Amino acid sequence: MKIEGRTFAISGGASGLGRALARSIVSSGGNVAILDLNPDVANPLIAELTPSRAIFIPCDVSSTDEIASAVSTIKEWISKTNYPLGGIIPAAGVGRPGLIIDKSLQPADMEGIDFLLSINLRGTLDLVRQLLPLVASTTPKDADGERGVVIMVASSAAFEGQMGQVAYAASKGAVASMTLPMARDLSRFGIRVVTIAPSMFDSAMTAVMPDKVRKGLEKAMEFPVRAGKPEEFASLAKQCIENPMLNGVVIRLDGATRMPSKL
Ligand SMILES: NC(=O)c1ccc[n+]([C@@H]2O[C@H](COP(=O)([O-])OP(=O)(O)OC[C@H]3O[C@@H](n4cnc5c(N)ncnc54)[C@H](O)[C@@H]3O)[C@@H](O)[C@H]2O)c1
């Protein structure tokens, strides 16, 4: 599907992987709607991308009402730009490590688990669910009858979650598992679904990692021996938008890294 002339909604698009994709989409002639929490990070990005091409919509993806309001704003914006919604990229995510039960036999707190799942899993599903009617009601522009694409973000933790990653792995494993059934649900509308599962990538999420943990992760890497760059994520996501044969698949983007149990 061509990016030019279409709008793409990116949650968590103010930072990291989502931001790199937003830049790539705009430079390819598309518009972006950034749904995020943080105006201090989002507003300079909108200025950089130019306000006629990008819009920031404050939205907590764990709130169904806030997503509904964001959908209305996107609908209104699209009616002015005439760039139909061609893609949904739920990239908002949080990591909150915690052992299922610690050394003193204290079980992980349910509040933390609910918080993580409400963003990484529920927020992904809810955002996609509520935005899909905007994509499914567009007029296809090619012979395949393609209307759009959903690109979800899992993680290596979906396959090799480390110690302390039970909740995060649950959220990302669920996102990976949703990929094929969602593609099957959406094929009648000409909407594809692809999930990218990155290993460690440079972003705000990994910037807070202690040096010792980062060095330990580097030891587990094959090639290249470094964190991925957000632009490398954006490059694959762009291909996922443009290549109609990519559908119903989870693509690992990890330089052959397989996470060990602990570092
Ligand atoms: N960076 C990595 O190493 C890595 C690896 C695998 C998967 N991921 C996944 O990639 C995605 C993007 O992460 P990133 O590395 O770019 O991190 P990031 O922290 O740079 O960006 C995440 C963005 O999500 C936003 N966000 C958080 N909670 C939100 C909420 N409730 N509603 C709306 N927005 C919210 C944040 O404000 C931030 O802008 C996440 O789903 C993450 O789990 C990242």
Q: Helix and strand layout, with pairings?
A:
Layout: E1 7-11, H1 16-27, E2 31-36, H2 39-49, E3 54-58, H3 64-81, E4 85-90, H4 110-120, H5 122-136, E5 148-153, H6 157-160, H7 166-186, E6 191-198, H8 204-207, H9 211-219, H10 230-242, E7 249-253
Parallel strand pairs: 1-2, 1-4, 2-3, 4-5, 5-6, 6-7
Helix pairs in contact: 1-10, 3-5, 4-7
The structure holds nicotinamide-adenine-dinucleotide.
Describe the structure.
The chain has 263 residues and is α/β, with parallel strands linked by helices. It has one domain: Rossmann fold, CATH 3.40.50. It has ten helices and seven strands. It is globular and about 55 Å long. 44% of the residues are buried. The structure holds nicotinamide-adenine-dinucleotide. Nicotinamide-adenine-dinucleotide (NAD) binds at residues 11-12, 14-18, 36-38, 59-62, 91-94, 119, 123, 153, 155, 198, 200-201, 203-206.
Question: Which fold name fills CATH's third level, the topology?
Answer: Rossmann fold
Distance between the termini: 41 Å
The amount of beta strand, in percent, is: 15-25%
* Count of individual helical segments: 10
CATH H-level homologous superfamily name: NAD(P)-binding Rossmann-like Domain
Query: How many domains?
Result: 1
Order of helices and strands: EHEHEHEHHEHHEHHHE
Which consecutive residue ranges, at least 5 long each, have pLDDT under 50?
Answer: none
Give me the CATH architecture, please. 3-Layer(aba) Sandwich
Structural class call reads: alpha/beta
Q: Which value, in Å, is the CA radius of gyration?
A: 18 Å
